[in-house]
Design the sequence.
């Protein structure tokens, strides 16, 4: 094919893909555009257009693209599938006796690879990106953990029964990919008429395949006794025991067995520190024990824990997480079991941990100075209610507030005074801490300046509006 024609076809593919991505076409036009792109691919040399084909499929047929990409890797037999929901992905990964990986897809974010390097280990999760970026991350993890056996290694190390099963699994991946491609090329009118039927059929087929797959894996575990050294058994199903008490510095804590299935599977233990009553009012202590002998060598993570209304509950101290991604995941799992969620995550030293265990009232100060690793969108840090002098010097009409609205404060020597936040604080009389924005008199701001800026704004005044205006005045 002439190079100029190829260039024109590539440009046409990009134009059609752009229109599909921005949904500027009708249903009929969408079907016609997909058909045109398919025809272009069919008439071109596959190696030249392979990258464009995969990028297009990732946009219009993401499940087909994921299956196609997985089949091109040396780890196709360890691939657990394509998922849109975290819970289904976790179930698929943790249901297998061997290490495996899967794709997580969200339309607005892109792709993630989730990797289970060993049984009952928390999933390692890549950043959001495209196939190439995620796969590069997978190869990096493979170099570190050596956890995934290649398809050739699986075929050479297992008995014929296992080979047959893996071959069938590989064939099913190809069949599923072909079926998905065939469905995607149906005329627009059939797509519209059969959407509900296809959805129900897909759910039934998935359930049947999962039942067959689980039964096959159970049979494999029973029959492959000659390969017990290769079969990895989930921690939740072992007889491994853990100590009843542990020491965290001078703190004597009792391990509380997990009562939730998710926490039990992940070996996430709450720690009872009731021997130090005051400490428990400030902090939930959590310990991850998948590798008990090394938890003391792991970093100490600390998070702000909120309820569903976004009210501060207490801090969460997590021990035993090997890295930042695992810490975010484990802290979130623990919080979710109590209908809470985490707003931010920081890392502190063991020395700092020992200090605020002895002086829990100083925890806020240590948290402010700790290294921030992650926070939720639209995040504001929290300050203990006891730190705030709530009497306002300046009275003005405030905008209505909800629990996510921050208070605006002014630091004066050893006092922190309220500028804006009466309506926010009036929402509840029992909150331990508030989200906040802070200004400091050392920045060259005083109450006369604040009064002047307030007079320039139209009431009712929103807290972020006032904060932005004051920051702008400081910079002038």
Sequence:
């Amino acid at each position: 094919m002439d190079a100029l024609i190829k260039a024109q076809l590539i440009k046409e593919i990009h134009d059609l893909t752009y229109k599909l991505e921005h949904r500027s076409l009708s249903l009929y036009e969408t079907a016609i555009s997909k058909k045109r792109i398919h025809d272009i691919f069919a008439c071109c040399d596959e190696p030249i257009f392979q990258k464009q084909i995969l990028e297009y499929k990732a946009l219009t047929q993401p499940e087909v693209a994921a299956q196609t990409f997985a089949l091109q890797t040396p780890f196709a037999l360890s691939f657990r599938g394509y998922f849109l929901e975290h819970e289904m992905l976790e179930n698929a990964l943790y249901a297998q006796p061997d290490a495996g990986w899967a794709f997580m897809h969200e339309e607005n974010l892109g792709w993630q690879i989730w990797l289970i390097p060993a049984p009952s280990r928390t999933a390692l999760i890549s950043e959001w990106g495209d196939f190439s970026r995620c796969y590069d991350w997978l190869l990096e993890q493979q170099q570190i953990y050596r956890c995934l056996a290649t398809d050739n290694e699986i075929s050479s190390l297992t008995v014929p029964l296992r080979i047959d099963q893996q071959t069938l699994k590989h064939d099913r991946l190809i069949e599923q990919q072909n079926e998905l491609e065939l469905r995607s090329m149906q005329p627009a009118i059939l797509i519209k008429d059969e959407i509900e039927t296809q959805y129900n059929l897909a759910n039934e087929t998935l359930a049947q395949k999962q039942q067959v797959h689980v039964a096959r894996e159970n049979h494999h575990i029973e029959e492959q006794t000659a390969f017990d050294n290769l079969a990895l058994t989930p921690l939740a199903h072992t007889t491994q025991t853990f100590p009843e008490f542990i020491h965290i510095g001078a703190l004597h804590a009792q391990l509380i067995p997990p009562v939730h299935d998710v926490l039990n599977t992940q070996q996430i233990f709450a720690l009872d520190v009731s021997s130090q009553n005051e400490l428990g009012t400030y902090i939930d202590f959590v310990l991850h024990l998948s590798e008990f002998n090394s938890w003391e060598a792991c970093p100490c993570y600390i998070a702000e824990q909120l309820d569903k209304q976004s009210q501060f509950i207490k801090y969460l101290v997590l021990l035993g997480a090997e890295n930042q991604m695992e810490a975010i995941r484990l802290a979130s799992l623990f919080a979710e079991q109590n209908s809470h969620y985490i707003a931010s995550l920081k890392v502190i030293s063991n020395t700092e941990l020992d200090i605020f265990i002895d002086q829990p009232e100083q925890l806020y100060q240590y948290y402010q100075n700790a290294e921030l690793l992650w926070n939720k969108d639209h995040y504001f840090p929290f300050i203990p209610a006891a730190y705030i002098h709530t009497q306002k010097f300046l009275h003005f009409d405030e905008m209505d507030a909800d629990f996510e609205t921050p208070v605006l404060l002014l630091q004066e020597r050893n006092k922190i005074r309220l500028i804006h936040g009466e309506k926010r604080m009036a929402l509840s009389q029992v909150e331990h801490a508030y989200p906040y924005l802070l200004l400091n008199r050392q920045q060259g701001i005083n109450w006369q300046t604040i009064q002047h800026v307030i007079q320039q704004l139209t009431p009712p005044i929103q807290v972020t509006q006032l904060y932005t205006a004051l920051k702008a005045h400081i910079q002038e």
Q: What stands out?
A: The radius of gyration is 28 Å. Confidence is low (pLDDT under 50) at residues 158-166, 181-203, 212-239.
